[in-house]
Amino acid sequence: MCTKNALLSHKKSVIITQIMDTTYQQICSARTVQSDKKGFFNEFYLEAKQTCGEKWLQNHFGQLKSNEARILSIFNDPEICDTVLGILENVQPVYKQKDALFSSQRRAQADQYYLLSSSGNKQEHLAQALAFANLAIIRAPAKGVDKQIDSGLSLAMAFRTRAIILLAMGAEGANGAEGAGGMAGTGSLGENALSDLKLAASFGLETQNNVEYYIQLAKAYARRFMDEMARAEISLKIAERFVGGNKAAIEACRQEWSLKKNLKPKLTYESPVLTNGENVDLKGASNLVKLVETKEKGHFIVAQSEVRTGDVILNEKPVAACLLPSFYGGFCCHCLERLVTPVPCLNCSGLAFCSAQCMGEACDTYHRFECQFMDLFIGSGMSILCYIALRIFTQAPSVESALNTAALLYENLCTHEDSRQADDYLQRSLMAGFLMRCLQKAQYFGQRKTEGVNPTAIELKVCTGLLGLLQVLQYNAHEIYQTVNKDDHIFEGSKIIYIGAGLYGTGAYFNHECWPTVARYFVGKNLILTATKPHHPNEVIAENYGPIFTKINLKERQRSLRGRYLFSCNCMACQENWPTLQKLDKQVRLWCPSVNCNNVLQFPKDLAKDVRCARCRKNVSLKESVARLIKVEELYREAAQAMQEQKVHQAIELFKEGINDFFEIAVLPHKDTLIAQLSLMKCLAALNYS
């Protein structure tokens, strides 16, 4: 019998837990606006909050019912507007500018290491040369900007220097290496060198009578492995026309070509194709799935017809996606592919692109508005979600188009509007105001009549749209990751790194379970979801939002989901409180083999004896099921061996067969099947990054 003291102690414990959960929820929410407490935005928020006072915040601002009213409040209400307007007046462009002298010095270092490569440690010296050449390119101003250094041709000269280094790496690869650090095959290096030579010419490098340029162009064409030998020969003939009698360099080039006959082209991988074609009602989704809605769960994705393990059910481009600032030097800011030979923005030195095409697409749209504020954004400490909210506007073809997109997202995706506190709304409103002010200064709205902050009608609409997006993104964005291989082996030593985040309109409809039924991976910015188990029609197809049962116990998963997403999970792993993978034994439960019976039976102690099913009330034999389970586990072993031998396609097919067979006879949790599903996820990701 419980004593009074025991009841009081229990009640106190419940209250403390509730307070801790509320605090954790507030921390989680704040981190989706400002991920770095050291940034100046936190000071802006705290000063505004102190100025307006708790009474006004709770009794007035906290009672406002629309985003429009909240934005109007921070710009017009006397309790707060002076502070907001005063601080936003100080917003100015802050970005890393070009430096011709720095570029010239780095190019000289690149040349030095290139020369050293001929005397030993070739790969190491070429890798160093490439690193300095990359720096020279990133910091070089556009043609004619600084004529006192390199006659205004720093960028063209840096591109040519890098092309020479890449061709040397390609020659090293032709002699048995893959390029410095295993970065790329000789075909990729040749293609990158060709691009650099063309860029050098476009930025002012003199090509008329330039024999060396056309020899380098010929070498680059020859190393592309794309039937470019005809163009390579044309380039050499142009060089012959300029060179006169001394044709030794040209003959040496032709002799070098003979060495590449036995080289294999670089393997390329295409983006996965949707199984059964694209669903006309769900952008980027397969016809195998459909969107449903219930009062309890809202909108979510289920199977429309039978889904098999390995079926690709989503291949979706993002509404918007952004790279984390900490990866600006390693990945393309446009397509998010890994950088080998960065191409710069012509105005700033803070980020880079993988190609002239990506640079052009970015600078013609969103980057022209964001360029001069990149370091200001970083200094503010704003989260990656704020970058995405801004990008939805800056990438749009017009302000009206962006407003329509923002309105549709706010209308259709979860925001938990009724659960937000006044503090949360204030923080997001101030961030929306800051982003709007940056757009003002970037002339996103055109030439303004005044430099003052006070927003016009259209600027207020944009600010309201930004506030809505900051709410949407908190619960609907996806982290974007890539798999990085440390060693030569695809799987051993590989790790996942999170490089950015994106908003996916259809992807956001997949509900959470603590053991997902799909593998999530990325091809560039595209979100790919592939089934990791068979699904029957109307069965939920589930993603995982982070807390996964194989690593985290039930209590911690529930706390994390309540704090981050404001719901308690009721998936099977939670209902049955599955132990973590480390604590899970190898026992398995089997389906009753009787027709139309969906009961689950414990693994028999004696296979020779029949088992009584409580649901269909039949005595059934589990011998066949156990025999099939043994075959399933053999398939898993064969798949694991194929992984060890880096036969990725073979491993995938074996895992798919084994997993499909397992779900016909048994249910989770089964340790070997869980490991098989995890391994299948690794294989699918490796297929696109190997």
TrEMBL record:
The keyword S-adenosyl-L-methionine applies. One of its GO terms (molecular function) is histone deacetylase binding. One of its GO terms (biological process) is methylation. The keyword ATP-binding does not apply. Coiled coil: none annotated. Gene3D superfamilies: 1.10.220.160, 6.10.140.2220, SET domain. This is MYND-type domain-containing protein. It comes from Glossina brevipalpis. The lineage of its organism: Eukaryota, Metazoa, Ecdysozoa, Arthropoda, Hexapoda.
